Amino acid sequence: MKTRLTILTFLLTALCLPATAPAFDFKKLDLDKMRQAGEKLKPLRELSESDEIEMGRGVAANLLGAAPLVNDPPMQAYVNRIGKWLAMHSERPNLPWRFGVLDTNGVNAFATPGGYVFITRGMLVRCRDEAELAGILAHEISHVVERHALNTMRKGALVGLAGDAFSEYAAKQGKESLTKLVSAGTEIFTRGLDKEDEFAADRFGVVIAARAGYDPYGLPGVLQTLASINPKDDAVALMFKTHPDPGKRLELITGVMEGRLDQYVDAPTAAARFVQMTKKYTNLETNKP
Amino acid sequence: MNHSGNKPVLRLALCLGLVLAMPAFAKETGALRQAADLMAAPYSDAKVLGRVAENTRVEILERRGAWLHINAASKKGWVKLHQVRAGEGPEKKSGQGLTALKNVAQTGRSGSTGIVATTGIRGLSAEELKSAKPNPAAVQAMDPLAANETAAREQAQAAGLKERTVPALPRPQP
Q1: Looking at the partner chain, which of B85, B136, B161 has a beta carbon nearest the beta carbon of A268?
Q2: Contact (Cβ atoms closer than 8 angstroms) between residue A82 and residue B155
């Protein structure tokens, strides 16, 4: 129906052109091309959960190709227990959540569709306590729960790599089309999500942290730290490029928390345990990339 | 001295125990990002003690939710978290930030002078991400590190985390 309407509209428009325009050559009309254009306008289907997870594994593989996991199984297990506890208080507690600390000095955190959440070593050492780490993980969990990356890809559907990837996936659902989705999903990390999605992940994140029993002001504490770093610093370059100004985020989140979550300021931060698990990483003079 | 048996040893042990149990405290400093009211208590409707000018250097004495207890030019009071820039400030010679960073991580919540221009440390770049060769084996290696619900709950309980019901936050109206 839509395709026919498109063709009709096109024909009517063409016929309404002034007489001085070149005469319309109906033989040149490519109906196949128009059908394809019509198909791209079809609403894009949601990924099934198993496809979402498989896509997430692909995106995670790309991230881990760029930076390996920190080789410290007890510390990684500690972070996984925090992350899983937070995810248990989200609306998608049963995804196969996986958490990892990437071995890079860069300051950043990433989440893939399907539940792979990463935080860099550089970000980890900037946390003052476990509640701050939890705040970051809860923000990332929120991106997955709300499917922000997938929605961004669907919204940008008519243009570019993401659009082609989704169209192809909708049409074929083959291995090749999933590969394209993985590429598009990885590209999100370098382009960033919509700023409204970032603000939303802040709001959802502090609520998850509060539900899990943490002092919910962990994430605001991190935002204050980020707002204090020189944006030109290479360690934060990618993160600053892909996220809204941390000072603005801090103002917005503390504003909406006032009168609602400030009753939980005395909840635990588990500072001693956090310092114990991360103190070996505070020596930054190795200056590895 | 006429102390019987282990009393002085016990007292010493108790003191040491208390000291070791506390996260080490070091002074964290900052500066006002904007002029702000200095409040007597961490509430919006507390008494206003005075005004602190933009860029005033402060000592951060305590963190409490969205508020900071500060010492600004010998006047103590509370300002909001977002009104203060932690650390020495955005412009800094390279290298000095590294020591500050170490201090933050080692001293727990009341971290030290904060983190600033850590120039020289390379981050993960967009180019590195785009040109990365996928590592599916590393993804699989994450599976044994994943936590189950029981382990997550145990670790949470060990820190005294208490679950609660919390409604979603509203989206701020423009």
Answers
A1: B161
A2: yes
